[in-house]
Structures are given as structure tokens and as C-alpha cells.
Amino acid sequence: MEATLLYLLKANVVLALFAAAYYGLLRRLTFFKLNRAFLLLALVFAAVYPALPVPALLPAVALPALPAATLGAASADSGALGPATPRFDWQLLILGIYALGTGALLLRLLGQLLSLAWVRQRTQPLVVLGQPVRRLAGLGGPFSFGRDIYLSDSTLADTQHLPAALRHEQAHVRQHHTFDVLLAQVITALAWPNPAAWLLRRAVLDNLEYLADHAALQTGLDRRAYQYSLLHQQPGGVPAPALAFHFSFLTLKNRITMLNQPASTTGQLGRYLLAAPLVMALALGYSGARAQTVTAVVQPAVFHPNIPDNALYYLDGQPSSKQAIGDLPPSTIFDMDILQDEPANIKRIFGNTTATSAVIITTRANANSPAVLDLIEKGDLGSGYTHTPAQANAVTPKALAYITQHYPDARLSGEVIEVKRKTTGAVKYQVQLIQGKRPFYAFFTPQGEFLKEVRH
């Protein structure tokens, strides 16, 4: 479920970026074929990109290992120790609403396709000016869908403007514009809450009309006469199906504006070199950073190179294996403790062993089991504490003096965490220090007495 929501979030963000780039940089350019390619790229990339194996496309960035105390804090913030309690699933509700909207729009698309099939059955094949068409009885403007051009009796009777209308529809058919329309409809259904999806759909439809107008003029039609033929067209009578290309007053003004728009200069081609690569780089860069961060946070204990091969692995208070812990779904993990290079502490907790490190995992289902609680108390593990950000003045002058004396080449990062034992309420403070580029942690009592340091 989380993966589905993340997929939808990424896809919708990319649609918004492409819409902003198109309306901000490209909309008024007369490179209609390039605009078509850009808009198709936007729709396809938004659908495909969230599923791309981004870490394989971008080089991984080495991230510092997180200390056990910090990992404990991340899990403790999600709720106190205790058995999982039933709670309302907001993710399921969001996905349910999203799916209902998508289903409704896909059903509407199916209805539009069935409407086109019904209209086609009512037509008769005919050849007009050497072009096979389908004749509709009654009034109405010309329209097309797929390989079919539909002309009403009123359009056929208007011999003066018939050639212009026919050549416009021929351009839609020859250039396979129906593919763009169907793709835009499907993407809009899948991203219906996103205004950017509707804006891109409108942009696709408008640009296809500009392409057809441009192609019609290239056949030798007079520009002024062609514009007059557009003004002369009258919708009505036989309603054109919603998916079909047909005359609309909503697009008439824009079409005439673009017919009179000065041709874009070659120098303006640089906008395409800025728009598409920038959007794709932003999307891939965000995903790469997120994927690397999630990997570092979710599985540092199992795959961190500093964990030796002979490390002990415990799952829910019982001996386990690296393989078993590695196979755990990340969403089931409640707490994680890492003990590294602490042979004396390892022996105190686990008995006679040559291991110097241990990885201790607690799942949500067993967070309050006796074995888990016993191991937390026995080992004084980080998951036995709550971790709360504290003010910098929680570090007493005595603690600062200790830091100055024993770590003269280290600097304070400003991160201070109040660490409180869940069972007794005893408090200590975790102070992050940075030596060179590597962070480490020093622990002090509220009175400023030094307790220990932790390096990873």
C-alpha cells in the first residue's frame, strides 16, 4: 500500500513539473511537432518513472551509519512499546477514494468508446473528394476518430468550406492523433485529483488541433479563407462523441491565435533543451536521494560493512540469523539495536562468545513480548529508552568542560537528545560531536557527569 501511494505521489509530482515547464516555456511556440513529443514524453515518463530502478541509474552516495540510539529514537517516536492496536487505516481510505475516482473516469472512457461505436453503426460509407468518409444524417460539424472521418449532411452540402474541413480531419487521421487522445484520457483518469493532469490533457488536445490546422494550410489552402471556414462551422444537430476531434468554440480563439502567431525562431529551440531534461533530472535526482536514504535507514544493521561476519543476530529476543533478518519486510520492524565492537558488553548480555557485535531486531507484533523486554533490560538497549530532542542548554557547563578537555579537535553539532529509560524514567543526554567529517556521540547525566561515548 505504501509503495502504491509513493508511486502515485511521484507520478503526480512529475506531471506537475511537466505542466509547469510546458505552460511556462513551450505553450506559445509554433513547433507543434516538438510540443507533441514533449507532451507525450510527459505522459509516458510520469507513468513509467516511479517504477524505474533509480539506484541502478544513479551512483549511490555513501551515507554515515546511524547509531543504535538514533535508530531507537526513530522507532520510539512511532509509538510507545506495546502490542499493535487496531487503528484506522488512512492509507486504505485514500487509496479507496483514489480508486473510485479512477474507476469512474475509466468507465466514462469506456462509455465514450461505446458511444463512438454506436454512432459509427448509424453512418454510411461514402467517398468525398477522393477520401473515404462516413456520412451522418442531419446537421452538425465534421469530426474524426481513429481512421474514420465523419461528415454530416449539412457539412456535405456546404461545398465552399468542405475542402478545408476535410483536410483538417485528414491530418488528424494521418498523424494518428487518436493515440494521443486516448493516452491523455487514461493518464487523466489515473491522476484525476491532480490539476496538472487536466491541464496537460487540455494542452494535448489543443496542440493536436494546431497540428491539424498547420497540416491543412500546407496543402495550399488560403490562410484567411481557412480561418473564415473555422468561423463558419456550426456545431449542433448530430452531437460529436466526446473523444472525437470536432469543432468547439472553446478552442476556436486559441486556434485562430496560433494560426496568426509568428513562426518561432530557431533560437527558441533551446527551451526544449531546458524543459524536458530539467524535469527528468529533478525527478530522477529526488528518487535517487530518497532511495539511498531509505536503504540506509531501513537496513543499516544487516548490510552495513562495519558489521563483522561473526556478529550475533537476535530477532524478537531470540537467536536468529542474518538471512532471516534480511528477509524481514521493513514495515514490520519496530526497533533496531546495534552493538558494535563491545566484546565485554556482548559477553555480559549473551554469555561466552567470541562475537564483538550484535544486531537486535524487534518486530511490531512482538514489541511487548517477555523475551524482548527481558533482553532490553538485560542489555540496557537503546530501544528501552525514549528519545526526545532537547535544548542545547541541557548540556551543563561541566559536560562542556569535559568535551573541551577530552575532545579538543571535535565540535558540537548542536544536536542534543534527551534519552529517558522507559521503565524507571531515568534521564541522560546524548550529545552529537563531529571529529573531522565523522559524527560520534557522548552521553552525560543531567548533572554533566560523563557516561560513555559511542562511535560507528
TrEMBL record:
It holds the Pfam family Peptidase_M56. The chain crosses the membrane at residues 6-25, 37-58, 90-110. It comes from the Bacteria. InterPro entries: Beta-lactam_resp_regulator (IPR052173), Peptidase_M56 (IPR008756). Keywords: Membrane, Transmembrane, Transmembrane helix. Residues 160-259 form the Peptidase M56 domain. This is M56 family metallopeptidase.
